[in-house]
Design brief:
The protein has 11 helices and 5 strands, in the order H-H-H-H-H-H-E-E-H-H-H-E-E-H-H-E. It is mainly α and about 300 residues long. It folds into 2 domains: about 190 residues; about 100 residues, Membrane-bound Lytic Murein Transglycosylase D, Chain A. The strands form 2 sheets. A 3-stranded antiparallel sheet has the order 3-4-5. It has a two-stranded antiparallel ribbon with strand order 1-2. A hairpin with a 6-residue loop joins strand 3 and strand 4. The radius of gyration is 23 Å and the shape is elongated. It starts with a helix and ends in a 9-residue tail after the last strand.
Length: about 300
């Protein structure tokens, strides 16, 4: 299943998604600049969401140096908090609330989950998001959201340099469909690549075995003098290798150098069950699995 997930996030499909999402980003940026009030903030939330998706597709497929996932998490926590605050203010003041804010909030929460460490991912929750975004796709394609009081309805006759701006359009619905489809696609691919859940007893046994098999590693880590980005040192047991985390390292970049492609990062994650893929510490020593034939570039 992990191989399927890696193929879904390989260069060709990722390039297609990046191109489509870039077009959608331009669409939302144009609305962001031309609109006022609630519509502007609504499109601002989507712009942030699109930047996160573009960065994730590019980072996984092309081994780009990733912005720390915690930073993205904080961004989407902030946007979610802002939306919740706006909804509460509207409710407390008894003002009409545009129902699409609820849709925007779900999207931002989904982005928080997407950037969370994969060890905490739950297949049931992941595929729940996939189901939700599948419903979104159908809703945008059938124009069902027009019944939810579109945010820009009150702004439909805003004047700008290009004339009257019509917020509802077929192209707009297609752009929103692409956003929902990209979210569902990423959730499926990442879940297929996620480490398989294991029982606590098995985890404890693996930790005990790892400590007994890698006793020399701490001393090796203390005496290591290799500069950042140097090739990993070969271990004497099991044909495995050990690697000392350097500044700027991610599992994506390490997998790209060791196995020839960043999509094989989950192989490293599975070999290090106690490792948080999204929070590597400089100087930390990790185990690299044996380079299997299919993992070679």
């Amino acid at each position: 299943m992990a191989e399927v997930g890696r193929e879904l996030l390989s260069e060709t499909p990722s390039l297609l998604w990046l191109t489509a999402l870039a077009v959608v980003l331009l669409f939302h940026c144009s609305h962001l600049l031309r609109m006022r009030g609630e519509p502007r903030w609504y499109h601002c939330a989507h712009v942030v969401m699109l930047l996160g998706m573009l960065y994730m597709f590019a980072g996984v497929a092309f081994s780009l140096p990733l912005v720390p996932p915690r930073a993205w998490t904080l961004v989407f926590v902030a946007t979610s908090a802002a939306i919740v605050s706006w909804i509460l203010i509207k409710l407390v003041r008894g003002r009409p609330l545009k129902k699409l804010w609820a849709v925007a909030l779900i999207q931002q929460v989904a982005m928080i989950y997407m950037w969370a460490p994969m060890q905490v991912w739950l297949p049931l929750l992941t595929y729940g998001f996939v189901l939700y975004f599948s419903v979104e796709i159908i809703a945008w394609l059938t124009n069902a959201y027009s019944k939810l009081e579109p945010l820009a309805a009150a702004e439909a006759h805003i004047r700008h340099a290009g004339g009257s701006l019509e917020p509802r359009s077929i192209f707009g619905d297609v752009c929103m469909t692409i956003m929902a489809a990209s979210m569902a696609y990423m959730f499926v691919a990442m879940q297929l690549m996620a480490p398989t859940a294991r029982r606590p007893q098995q985890v404890a046994e693996d930790r005990l075995e790892a400590r007994s098999d890698s006793a020399p590693v701490p001393q090796q880590a203390r005496s290591a003098t290799q500069p950042p980005r140097r090739a990993p040192e070969v271990r004497a047991s099991r044909g495995e290798e050990s690697y000392k985390i350097a500044a700027g390292d991610t599992l994506w970049s390490i997998a790209g150098r060791v196995y020839g492609h960043a999509r094989l990062w989950d192989r490293i994650a599975k070999a290090n069950p106690d490792l948080n893929p999204y929070h590597l510490r400089v100087g930390q020593v990790i185990t690299l699995p044996e380079r299997l034939p299919e993992a070679k570039p």
